[in-house]
């Protein structure tokens, strides 16, 4: 390295030695190369000398190897030169370099038979070549690559057939992917591939002038243009696809565009709105009915993809467009009788020519499902209503679309009825059942007047020569008859969930229109309460709604006991919102996953289908009050009578209300019922009636005055029963006339109530019809001490039985060894037990004051039910 230090001083020996250590190894070789280059090129030396002369001060300071070090100024200049070089290189050259690198990667994958990397590089290659296509012609190196790749693939497949050799999963997937894509891809460049295979050398050497392709216009640019100027800006422009090629929409190219769109559905980075625009233009150029039907079906499916997310609903404008297109599709199928859409038909694969009717053929069958379109349109409307605030005008406006949707459901039903007339088509019965169920779902919860309007509007859109076999055309529409016909058809032609839902819909409609006894009989004979737990959640929700509606119907009929017994299952649980799908309950201690919460929200019913929960609670508490207050009076006057509870929810509220030190005037529905309960228990039936009538929620029920009149009579009767239970021990005889005056009831009604109580053994008395008096029988009246002794005896007997059962379980039945046939060690306690858990017949039976045995009567039946 001495030649690098020819101009150095001896005094700098230490620095030179350090520099020798620094520039050892590879850097020394690099410096030798630099010196050789300087010696070989005189021009470079002259430039260096000129630079050294121009900056003499710097040269005087830099000696030895230091003159080869790069200072800050020179490094900045070099960086600027590098930037200039990078900017000078054109983008097209860079893309060619990337394309060649990708082709090299494919060739390397072919050498080692790595189809996984070949598949990835092939996808990358196709993305790169779209940027380099010039006037529809691809680069020649690309044509050579895909032609050789196709040949290599064919050779590999041929070897696999001759000598099957198991490939690993990655290679097999890559080979299948290339096999599926390369044939479709090479079809677009078939002419160039044929020219290459005919004479590869001539093809590669031929020089064709390449004109740079125009830059492809991206869709994002259109977002910057105002909507008002969109039509003006479209003039003079054409739709641009990949690679900057203009898309030509002709009747002959419709099927190719449709196939491309169908294959790209569901893939990432797919512009769905752009696809919809393309299909709208295809619909404009469609000529034949087959083309129109295919475009409409694909367009409707693409619009549904916009609402495929879990939480987002379909945009309003696209829903209305899909509704119009589905209506147009059904109208086209009505006019073109030889074109039918049916499930299970064979797909037509030839994109160059449409199918034609051959000799012996009656229909051109197109694969698809009209009922699936209708169901999806219905579901999207429901999701849209779920996401809108129901207390705004937007919800009312959105709800008006239900009329047009019902019209489409009706037209779809007529279409399937037409298909079912031809036995050769083999239309599945399930499709017809599904669309009838959708029609039923839109009418079962509506009043008869609304159903009548919907049906009349549907028949106006139908030609006069078209009629329905299931629901024929009539002059006046009867909603009850319509529901009955639809449900009977599903009873006869379906089973499982659809049949159960049809039954529930009919029961709901009957209960809504005050036909309680028919609804009750259908509910009992269907036995759905035994098997409803095995159905899906939506059917269980419908069952709960039907049960509640039957209970409300019983209340409107004045059947308090039946109403309370029916509503007990729903209202007694405290989960009315969740069971009726009218809201998500906030669970305090349970952690709900986001997936469960999302499913719960999807199951919620739209607001217009809700049952008023405040009205439901008011009815339930009122019925519980009319049953519980007489029962409390009965058990209070007879300490030995076992306490029973009809409604735990009502009892809990009543106890909480009684614990309050100060109770102000009632503010809500619950307060009104509790105040009325206290007044009724005290015998103030007029005050109780006033409290109940002052509840404003009764105005939401039809025939409000009839409801209030019925409640007043019920309060009078239950007040009479409560009075008799409370004060019977203090009377020997009581005049019916006095009771009639006290409670403002007819004498016959008082006699009927007393007779009913006596017959049910709720009251130890006799009715003298001659003198119209009630004679109370005292009998053997138990004292307080005797009643407590009987209670203690019963508890001791129950404790003995519990101990015996526990002993029997621990000794595994050995305790029964004493019960032998010889009679030794017989039953204990004087009672006879018929095995474990059997009824105890020995001991003292429970008695009521007056000496009569209490059997329960109507209240006992309520508990046993």
Polypeptide structure, described:
Among the domains are: 2-86, no CATH class; 91-205, no CATH class; 247-351 and 362-494, no CATH class; 613-776, Arc Repressor Mutant, subunit A. It is 61% helix and 2% strand. It starts with 12 loop residues before the first helix and ends with a helix. It has 865 residues and is mainly α. It is built from 39 helices and five strands. The strands form two sheets. A three-stranded antiparallel beta sheet has the order 3-5-4.
Features:
single chain, 865 residues, mainly alpha, three-stranded antiparallel sheet, two-stranded parallel ribbon, 5 strands, 61% helix, disordered N terminus, disordered C terminus, cytoplasm, protein biosynthesis
Amino- and carboxy-terminal Cα gap: 112 Å
Major sheet details = 3 strands, antiparallel
- The number of E-state strands comes to 5
Helix content: 55-70%
Radius of gyration: 45 Å
Strand order of the largest sheet: 3-5-4
Round the mean pLDDT to the nearest integer and report it: 78
How many individual helices?
39
Which runs of at least 5 residues are low in confidence (pLDDT < 50)?
1-31, 36-67, 72-87, 208-237, 815-865
What structural class is derived from the secondary structure elements? mainly alpha
What shape does the CA trace take?
Answer: elongated
Beta-strand content estimate:
under 5%
Subunit structure: Component of the eukaryotic translation initiation factor 3 (eIF-3) complex.
Biased composition (Gly residues): 826-841
Protein name: Eukaryotic translation initiation factor 3 subunit C
InterPro entries: EIF3C, EIF3C_N_dom, EIF3CL_C, PCI_dom, WH-like_DNA-bd_sf, WH_DNA-bd_sf
